[in-house]
Write a structure and sequence with these properties.
Elements: E1 3-7, H1 19-24, H2 26-39, H3 43-48, H4 57-77, E2 84-87, H5 91-98, H6 104-120, E3 127-133, H7 137-144, E4 150-157, E5 160-166, H8 167-179, E6 184-187, H9 200-211, E7 222-223, E8 230-231, H10 237-244, H11 251-260, E9 265-269, H12 274-282, E10 287-291, H13 294-304
Parallel strand pairs: 1-2, 1-9, 2-7, 9-10
Antiparallel strand pairs: 3-5, 3-6, 4-5, 7-8
């Protein structure tokens, strides 16, 4: 098997994620404690006790990264290793962790800052996003190019694109996209116009935080969201992470590139099965195995003998 570890983005978070791993091994509880210190959040409470705070962007991001990195460590401990990695938006930080470029502490700390910057750059209620089902990239762009302050945000898979921008602009685009032939247009319940030029200031502020981070050499290649390219040189990482905040996520292209590399198995690390759905619609020849519990790892080990 040629394995890629792929990581989901914000939206799949849930209370209890990675809890079974933490209960099974003290080293994972240590990671939760490290994450609490790095983020300034009581991560035990956020991850494992009933709460709504986990859905606040500046909490969601470090919480999901913490859970996914714990599961990553369990996979590596079991001898299951990737040859390449990629992450969807926030998931890019987890891919940089497994690739060796970001320490766990920095991944958690930076995503807390990233979440706060993304939430605060545009006043609450002024930005929005909408999912567009059933149109191609050029069809969506033919509409968004005619309206100010709305842009494509995510190219997830064939026929599924997300737009972003000022709320009134997104709402102006939605009926026009339906007229253009969209099967479904749904405004999303999000706190801001993520991955839009409106967040360029947030990206630049994150860039200043990144300037002080010491990156490790990449042990395996990773794919960046901003350009859907295989990255092997750590010198490119900081600029790409800054751009990622205000640029479209080119996930569909990333999946095609993984297929070209010969990847035949994607391990979707973390809760939810968002990536599996995108893979099925984009590169169905690639098998996806979801891992969110210790039992999932045991099943993989049984299959590979």
């Amino acid at each position: 098997m040629k394995i890629a570890f792929c990581y989901p983005g914000q939206g799949v978070q849930q209370v209890g994620m990675a809890e079974a791993f933490v209960k099974s091994d003290a080293r994972y509880q240590e990671m939760v404690d490290v994450a609490s210190k790095a983020s300034g959040i009581d991560m035990n409470k956020l991850l494992f006790e009933p709460n709504e705070d986990i859905n606040i962007t500046e909490n969601t991001q470090p919480a999901l990264v913490t859970a996914c990195c714990i599961i990553t460590e369990a996979l590596l401990k079991a001898g299951i290793k990737p040859e390449v990695t990629a992450g969807l938006s926030l998931g890019e930080y987890c891919s940089l962790y497994v690739a060796g470029a970001l320490s766990f502490e920095d991944a958690v700390r930076l995503t807390r800052i990233r979440g706060r910057l993304m939430s605060s750059e545009v006043p609450a209620g002024e930005g929005s996003m909408a999912a567009i089902i059933g149109l191609k990239k050029d069809q969506v762009e033919s509409v968004t190019n005619t309206i100010e302050n709305v842009w494509p945000a995510n190219f997830n898979c064939p026929g599924q694109i997300v737009i972003t921008g000022k709320k009134e602009a997104v709402r102006e685009a939605m009926p026009k996209l339906e007229e253009a032939g969209a099967v479904k247009v749904v405004e999303l319940n999000v706190s801001g116009p993520f991955h839009s030029p409106l967040l360029k200031g947030a990206g630049e502020k994150l860039g200043k935080e990144l300037a002080g981070v010491e990156l490790g050499d990449l042990k395996i290649p990773y794919f960046a969201n901003a350009n859907a390219s295989e990255i092997t040189d750590k010198a490119q990482i900081k600029e790409l992470l800054e751009k990622q905040v205000y640029s479209p996520v080119r996930w569909e292209e990333t999946l095609y590139e993984l297929e070209k590399m010969g990847v035949d198995t994607i391990i979707e690390v973390g809760p939810g099965r968002t990536i599996a759905g995108f893979v099925r619609k984009t590169v169905p020849s690639i098998k996806v195995i979801g891992v969110s519990t210790p039992e999932d790892i045991e099943k993989i080990l049984e299959k590979i003998g």
